[in-house]
Every structure is written in structure tokens, then in C-alpha cells.
Amino acid sequence: MTRRLKVSLLSSLAVLGLGVGFASALPAAAATTATSSSSSSSSATTTENTTTSADFTTDPNAAVSMDSAPNISFGSNPAPNGKTNGSYVGVSADNPLEVSNPGVPTGWSIQLKNTPFTDTTGDTLEGAVLSLGDSTVAAANTGNPSAVPTASSTPLDGGSANQIVLSAPAKGGLGVWDATYVPNKISLSVPAGQLGGDYTSTLTWQLSETPQ
């Protein structure tokens, strides 16, 4: 399943889980035979085992789904044309990368790639590299015992190669999981020597029902 979401630049370089016993003796008396008596009691314990059961079913047509992914913005910045290259920090990332697994045991993964940053006139931010930084992965509910998906961060250079950004092992990643990207950890590096413009890169997030 492929879902395309845009990262748009607002202006220059934008988007840029117990016997009791007792005895008593009577004192002897003349022509009297002493007698004694004793008594005891005991109690026994028994055990019995019972069972309780619960049956959970999964729709045979159930499938893992990607519910959302972030749109990212770097705001408005001066074009990098000085003695140093440009480095920009994200201003916003509106949604988490969210995956829902209704009980599919295969495991799953999300791969990501992006297109070059290009403006409406066709000009491109040559050499621009986008990094989403480390995301925080957590279950949408409290106490989810399923294996936590693993997140990874790989720079995106606008090429055609997919990068693994989130992966759950077989029988893991069950339920709803969010990988949240924090804007100030997202960065865009751009070599100096660029034209001003409103540049946009399309991020393609691809879900597969196989772990990586």
C-alpha cells in the first residue's frame, strides 16, 4: 500500500505501551482406680481446579493499515548563498506516523523515499538532504504487551531508494502504534548556491506486511 504525503516549503527552502490433644488425670482416692481419658479431633483440606477461558478471533480479511504520516514544514528562510551551507530546522510536523494492526501475525514495515525539492518553475535545490531525526515510538493505549516497533533514521536525498523508517517483528507491533517526529529534530541541509523559491518534496511512505 502506498500513501503519498507532501512536505511543502512555505517560502524559500521550506518543507525545507491444625490435632488438638489433651489428657486429664483425676487424683487417686482410696479404693478408687484412677482413670484417664483423651480425645482428639482433626480436619482435612481439599483442593479443586477449575478453568476459565476466553476466545479471541481475528477477521480473516484483517490487514495492517497506515493511518497517518507527517506533513513537514521548514518555514521561510533566506536562500543559502553565503560562505557556509544552509542548515534548517523543522517548524512543524502535523501528524505522527501511525500504524494499526488488528491482529495480523506477519510483522510489518514502513519504507520511505522522497523526491527532489523542486519549485513551480522546475528549479531544484541541488544537494538538499532531509533528515527526520529519531522518532518516539509508543502504543496508542496503555500497557500494550506486544513487541515495540523499531524506528530508524536515514537521510533522504531525493533519490529513488526506499529507506526503512519503522519495522515490527513477526507477532509484534499489534494494536495501534505511533512514531512521532519532533520538528526541532528534523533538519534540511542545503549547499550554498541556490535560487530563491517555494520548494516542495513529496514523501512516499510504503507499508508492507513483512518485517525488515
Query: Level of helix content?
Result: under 10%
Count of helix runs: 0
* CA radius of gyration: 35 Å
Total beta strands: 16
Strand content: 35-45%
Give the topology string: H per helix, E per strand. Answer: EEEEEEEEEEEEEEEE
Tally of separate domains = 1
Indicate the mean pLDDT.
86
The structure class reads mainly beta
Compute the separation of the termini in Å. 16 Å
Enumerate the strands of the largest sheet in spatial order, edge to edge or round the barrel: 1-16-9-13-12
Q: Which residues sit in consecutive blocks of at least 5 with pLDDT less than 50?
A: 1-15, 17-28
| Spatial shape | elongated
What composes the largest sheet? Answer: 5 strands, antiparallel
Describe the structure in your own words.
The protein has strands at residues 2-12, 20-25, 36-41, 65-68, 72-73, 86-89, 92-93, 97-101, 108-114, 129-131, 136-139, 150-151, 163-168, 175-180, 187-190, 198-208. It is mainly β. The protein has one domain. A 5-stranded antiparallel sheet has the order 1-16-9-13-12, with no helix packed on it. Strands 4-8-14-11 form a 4-stranded antiparallel sheet, with no helix packed on it. Strands 6-15-10 form a 3-stranded antiparallel sheet, with no helix packed on it. The relative contact order is 0.30.
Quick take:
This protein is mainly β and 212 residues long. It has strands at 2-12, 20-25, 36-41, 65-68, 72-73, 86-89, 92-93, 97-101, 108-114, 129-131, 136-139, 150-151, 163-168, 175-180, 187-190, 198-208.
Task: List the SSEs and their pairings.
Elements: E1 2-12, E2 20-25, E3 36-41, E4 65-68, E5 72-73, E6 86-89, E7 92-93, E8 97-101, E9 108-114, E10 129-131, E11 136-139, E12 150-151, E13 163-168, E14 175-180, E15 187-190, E16 198-208
Antiparallel strand pairs: 1-16, 2-3, 4-8, 5-7, 6-15, 8-14, 9-13, 9-16, 10-15, 11-14, 12-13
